Amino acid sequence: MGVIVDRKGKQAALEEFAEKYEIPMRRTIAIGDGANDVSMLEAAGLGVSFNGKAAAREAADAALSVPYLDSVLYLMGITREDIEGADARAGVVTPAPVIS
User: What EC number(s) has UniProt assigned to this enzyme (predicted)?
Assistant: First the structure.
């Protein structure tokens, strides 16, 4: 089992990351699904609840209830073509989407 980080720890980690890479907090994105993500979601420029529990959905700016995390990219305005182009430039083949 991995380490469970409390809500203030997650917020602090986001703030430390933003400071280290000189990213204004208003330009950060946090994704979470539970009560221990609330502070991080509220601190981020864009807080996204991903298949979240009520506390996360209420704290987030947006809520997604879909099976794939890459849907967050679409929320950010990044298209499948953008992803495939970036992968091609990096010499990586983009896997086909799974449709069930």
Answer: 3.1.3.3
The span from the CA of 95 to the CA of 81, in Å, is 12
Compute, in degrees rounded to 10, the torsion defined by CA atoms 79, 64, 6, 19.
30
Q: Are strands 29-32 and 62-64 parallel, antiparallel or unpaired?
A: unpaired
Q: Is the pLDDT of residue 45 over 70?
A: yes
Q: What is the pLDDT of residue 78?
A: 92
CB 30 within 8 A of CB 5: no
Q: Would you kindly state where each structural domain of the chain is located, as residue ranges?
A: 7-89
DSSP string over 35-65: GGGHHHHHHSSEEEEES--HHHHHHSSEEE-
| Protein fold of 7-89 | Rossmann fold (3.40.50)
pLDDT tops 80 at residue 10: yes
Distance of alpha carbon 44 from alpha carbon 59, whole angstroms: 11
